[in-house]
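Dear colleague,

Thank you for sharing your sequence with our group. We've completed the structure prediction you requested, and as agreed, I am returning the results in plain text so they can be pasted directly into your records. Please verify that the sequence below matches your submission; if there's any discrepancy, let me know and we will rerun it promptly.
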Amino acid sequence: MLQRMPFIAAAALLLAAQSSAPAPPETPPAAHIIPGPFMLFFDWDSSEISPRSAEVLDYVISIYRTIPGTRILITGHTDRSGSAAANLRLSCRRAEQAKAYLTRHGIADALVTIGAFGEAHRYVETPDGRRDEKNRRVEISFGTWDRPRGRCGA
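Please find the predicted structure tokens below.
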């Protein structure tokens, strides 16, 4: 019996240690991955939303409905044809048209930030004066930003 006592004491200590051990950490919730940016393309010197761009905007709205309250950034861009000042105004009109579409479809105006870059942030490098459809665009992203991107109304 005396020989069993150390074994019983060791077993009791082991059981006590197991019961006081911290529970394993819980698996953190999966991060919600938000796709984007989404791009709308425009005809030369136009800010009109095309049927294809409306489809992209509808898709953006459907994603927004899964993550309501998330901020949206819309930036307008142009190609290098025309003056820099005219391109800045055109890129602003493009961003404003995209924002108007989203707000007409239920996204709060306060959650949508717009910016305009004119010809400054080209998607495809081109020489000055060159028209390029890939640069005539609006980019839409979800998330938050510390400072405004680009300017409208300048």
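Summary note from our side: The first strand starts at residue 38 and ends at 41.

Kind regards,
the structure core
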